[in-house]
Amino acid sequence: MHRVCGALLLSAGAAACQADDPDNSCGIPTSELSLVATAVDNGPTLRAEVDFTTVRASGELSIALCDEDKLIIAGEEPQRVDRPDRVIYSYTSEVTSSPTVEFEFVRDGEDSVTFSITMPPAFEVTAPQPDTEISRSAELLLEWLPPNPGGSMRIALAEEIGNGVCLETLVEAHNYKDLSGVDIEDDGNWKIPAATIDSGARDKCDATYRFARLASAEYPAALHAGGYLEGRVERAVAFSSVP
């Protein structure tokens, strides 16, 4: 799909892509490019990813950067990763004390496009403890520190499904298995009532509560609308769900 460019990393030594390749950025004005940039703090590491798109008559098209275009994340050139549906540029480092991740999109003969993502405050889950058994017939108190009053916390439930779905959420307000999870006030705790989650005929189910604190950032005016910038701090607690 990406011809000459498909197997290359974004590096100074990469061969230049041809300007007539419809799947790369060569010849596309900056104002016709949009991007999605995310930065995720998962505790040990910070991962930043960027993907570029443009609009064609057939719809939105994921594109790679040709050699004339450069992306810099936190002062470094990221690695190109080809996924089945899109090309992303990925940067990973240890989590630092800096709350901001800087990005720069450099093009020959044009002003650089700079933008940044300021990460939401970091937190740690204090309850439940990892790798414990949690009864579905009892109320569960989720707790994390520090709280972020006025903000929101997203809670989702994932599981090792094996031969099928094990856990079901029965109450709309506690539908943690929804694709986007449940957004709640970031007060440092949240109660899940007893019998809110069911396992059908199964007794024990291995699952994970995922917590995410999100922050959006200002999108660059020089780029085409439709993209977004987002920072996330994510934490996860694995557990066994029992009757």
Counted up, domains total 2
What does the oligomeric state look like here? single chain
By secondary-structure content and strand pairing, the structural class works out as mainly beta
Radius of gyration: 21 Å
Mean pLDDT: 87
- Kindly state the percentage of residues in helix: under 10%
Straight-line N-to-C gap: 50 Å
Order of helices and strands: EEEEEEEEEEEEEEEEEE
Main sheet makeup: 10 strands, mixed
Number of helices: 0
Sum up the structure in keywords.
243 residues; mainly beta; Immunoglobulin-like; S-adenosyl-L-methionine-dependent methyltransferases; three-stranded antiparallel β-sheet; 49% strand; disordered N terminus
Give a description of the structure:
The protein has 243 residues and is mostly beta strands. The protein has two domains: 3-119, Immunoglobulin-like (Sandwich), CATH 2.60.40; 124-214 and 235-242, S-adenosyl-L-methionine-dependent methyltransferases (Single Sheet), CATH 2.20.130. Helix content is 0%, strand content 49%.
Write the layout of secondary structure elements.
Blueprint lengths: L32 E9 L3 E12 L2 E5 L5 E5 L5 E4 L4 E8 L5 E8 L5 E6 L5 E4 L4 E4 L4 E6 L6 E8 L8 E2 L12 E4 L3 E4 L4 E2 L6 E13 L10 E15 L1
Parallel strand pairs: 1-18, 10-18
Antiparallel strand pairs: 1-2, 2-3, 2-6, 4-7, 5-6, 7-8, 9-11, 11-15, 12-14, 12-17, 13-16, 17-18
